[in-house]
Amino acid sequence: MTAAAEQAARVVRRGLGLSTLGLLGLGGVYLLALGHTPVEARQGLAQKIFYLHVPAAWAALLSFSLVGIASALYLWLKDPRLDRFAAASAEVGVVFSAIMLTTGPIWAKPIWGTWWTWDARLTLTLFVFFLFIGYLGLRAALHDPEERARFSAVVGILGMLLVPFIHLSVYLFRTLHPQPIVLKPSAPSLPPEMLTTLLVSTLVFTVLYLGFVMARYGLALADEEREEARDAG
Amino acid sequence: MPDSLRLALAIAAKDIRAELRSRTALQSALVFAALVLVVFNFARDPTVLAATDLAPSVLWVTFALAAMVALNRAFNVERENAALDGLLLAPVPREALFLGKLLANLAFVGTVELVTLPLFMLFFNVSLGRALPGLLGVTGLATIGFVAVGTLFSAMAVRTRFAELMLPVLLLPFMIPPLIAAVQVTSRLLADRPLSEMWGWLRLLALYDIVFVTLCMMAFSSVVDE
User: Using alpha carbons only, what angle is made at residue B35 by residues B32 and B40, rounded to the nearest 5 degrees?
Assistant: First the structure.
């Protein structure tokens, strides 16, 4: 095994280790959410899904913002590591968005009485999800690594600038989505048990994000190594 | 006239001349737009929904789909006989090249829109009257934005295996803000509402145009230069 392949394997192992840690933490979040937090007075048990939905939304937002930043930096520095990171982050972001977009309707059906509504935040996240599926599709359809990196960086940057526009254009419709509870100017207005669970869950999802991205990054490294070995041999 | 603008106009003129000589793409796009309008007419229950309630969205979905067909063509023609390589070897700044392609695409999409508009009035029994100048204005404003993004993306999409599919998947999310704004303004125009109700949307359109035309022009060299 070459030194580069060994390094790739090391990164994958580290990523998988971190992901395992995150998954164990996720088990802890379930225990906290079901056993530790009080039942919300008006929404009942349905509210418990927030402990997954909100952190998943956070992780998706984090992934996509980092794709945009890494894309902009790539066009400037032309460092292949930035491109590899952007690709890994986009893929992981799609997974977290899928979690957000499925847990949302499951909660919305009993509480709002409808699975889906064309509210500003919902529409925004749905289109960002589509955008990154397109981003990954473009990557899959290109062979030359350098060309793939340049093209996807351009889409990544444009995508980052599209987000405020989608938000502005759908904002004028009346919004149904719950207003901020934690991140708002006044103090968070929820019981301490709920807040700790939510914060723990956000931390766990961040660890999961890091673990997944690291594993995916290592796999991309290994893939490149294999391609190179095949071209050389 | 500044040099790059002159070059951009020359490139646009080349594209328009080539299109006028063959006319195949333009004819197909026009027939396509007319067909979409006809199909929409059957998708609506006339006893439930008045034609005018649906008209703005029908008009804009038709424009968007026709633009997609037109944009797919933009760099496809340059790929034959490696014409794009010749164009890139010419001493033309990339910004001027992008602008030229953008202008040609705007002429193409604009023609399709101008022909679709009377058909739309005919099929959906809409009398535009005083709304016509406003409608032309908002059409131009919205079209510039998404055609700019589409021009950039079609230069990328032709390099992929499924170019005809790749372009819509990439471009449709970018069409959402201009389409929403254009539909809102169109329905207010048709209902004869005052300008103050459309002002926010028009500003959004203008901002979108400024941001994305500039950005696409800057990003174009990253797409074509290896």
Answer: 130
Q: Which tokens go with A116? A: 């889906």
Q: What is the per-residue DSSP string for A91-114?
A: HHHHHHHHHHHHHHHHHHHHHHSS
Mutation target vs B (from A143, A152, A165; most B CBs, 10 A cutoff): A165
Domain boundaries, chain A: 3-38+46-232
Give the global pTM.
0.87
What integer pLDDT is reported at residue B213 of this predicted model? 95
Does residue B208 contact residue B177 with C-beta atoms inside 8 Å?
yes
Do A147 and B226 lie within an 8 Å CB cutoff? Answer: yes
Average pLDDT over residues A108-124: 82
For residue A40, list its beta bridge partners.
A44
Calculate the dihedral angle through the C-alpha atoms of B195, B201, B204, B206, rounding to the nearest 10 degrees.
-40
DSSP state of A40: B
Query: B173-194 in b/e burial notation, b at 16+ Cβ within 10 A?
Result: bbbbbbbbbbbbbbbbbbeeee
Size of interface A-B (CB pairs under 8 A): 79
Angle between helices A50-77 and A80-112 (to 10 degrees): 150
Three-state DSSP string of B23-91:
CHHHHHHHHHHHHHHHHHHHCCCCCCCCHHHHHHHHHHHHHHHHHHHHHHHHHHHHHHHHHHHHHHHCC
Q: Domain range for residue B162?
A: 3-224
Count of structural domains within chain B: 1
pLDDT tens per residue across span A58-108? 999 899 999 999 999 999 999 999 999 999 999 999 999 999 999 988 888
CA dihedral A130→A133→A134→A135, nearest 10 degrees, is 120
Q: Which of residues 144-173 of B touch A (CB under 8 A)?
A: 149, 152-153, 156, 159-162, 166, 169-170, 172-173
Q: Which residues of chain B have pLDDT under 50?
A: none
Average pLDDT of span A25-51: 85
Helices marked H in A32-144 — which ranges?
Answer: 50-77, 80-112, 120-140
Query: How far apart, in Å, do the first and last CA atoms of chain B sit?
Result: 30
